[in-house]
Design goal:
This protein is α+β, with helices and mostly antiparallel strands. It is built from three helices and 15 strands. The strands form three sheets. A seven-stranded mixed sheet has the order 1-9-6-7-8-4-3. It has a six-stranded antiparallel sheet with strand order 12-11-10-15-14-13, with helices on one face. Strands 2-5 form a two-stranded antiparallel sheet.
């Protein structure tokens, strides 16, 4: 039986309202999620999932990703079997610093010619497909799934960095970003410009970047 301990490490001045709670869900058979459903005043940022067997030694499982009013970490079968206690720790928002590091890594390690698989969504609309890029310019794009009436302009990795930078400059209320550890591209991003406005969230997932040289 898993014991959910809630959250810890909130920044000064941050408060979680009473309806916040930590839960383990298995909406899809075989896919178990650790969820933190919350309202944070002054504490929106990066949350880390942690687990323990004895409440003394805590193991970091990974970053919880934001999906509209809840933070989610996908538990593996081994993690679920091994640990009894789970908690979420607030780490603050360091996305701007990590963005600079990731962009420098991409400039140093990223290929000049590459093909990537991208899943982009905005509100209820989505686009998934293949994008070919050469020297920062999209040379070809092909959708495999989409419900946009007019296809969005395809973007290179450099363009996705620019979208993320613009969200930071615009002071979006929630920005959650994960970067590829080897080449730095923004692998998974969620942006919510205003938590008080519905259906203006957007995000993307770059599933694969393959050099073409």
């Amino acid at each position: 039986m898993a014991v959910l301990l809630g959250w810890t490490g909130l920044a000064p001045g941050a408060e979680i309202e009473a309806e916040a709670y930590l839960e383990i869900c298995e909406d899809v058979p075989g896919e178990v999620e650790l969820r933190l459903v919350e309202r944070v005043e002054g504490g929106a940022g990066r949350w880390t999932a942690e687990a323990s067997e004895d409440l003394r030694r805590w193991e970091v499982l990974g970053t919880m990703f934001y999906y509209g009013e809840r933070y989610v970490y996908h538990l593996t079968d081994e993690q679920r079997r091994k640990h009894r206690y789970f908690r979420a720790r607030f780490e603050g928002s360091d996305v701007e610093e990590r963005l600079v590091e990731a962009k420098n890594l991409w400039m140093d390690q990223g290929p000049a010619r590459y093909r990537m698989t991208v899943f982009f969504w905005s509100s209820f609309f989505f686009w998934k497909g293949r994008v070919d890029v050469e020297n920062g310019v999209v040379t070809e794009a092909e959708a495999t799934e989409t419900n946009f009436f007019e296809p969005p302009e395809p973007r290179a990795v450099e363009d996705w960095f620019a979208v993320l930078e613009q969200a930071i400059r615009s002071r979006a209320e929630v920005i959650n970003a994960e970067f590829d550890p080897e080449t730095g591209y923004p692998a998974e991003v969620f942006i919510d410009f205003s938590t008080g406005i519905s259906d203006e969230e957007q995000g993307w997932r770059i599933e694969m970047v393959t050099p073409l040289d």
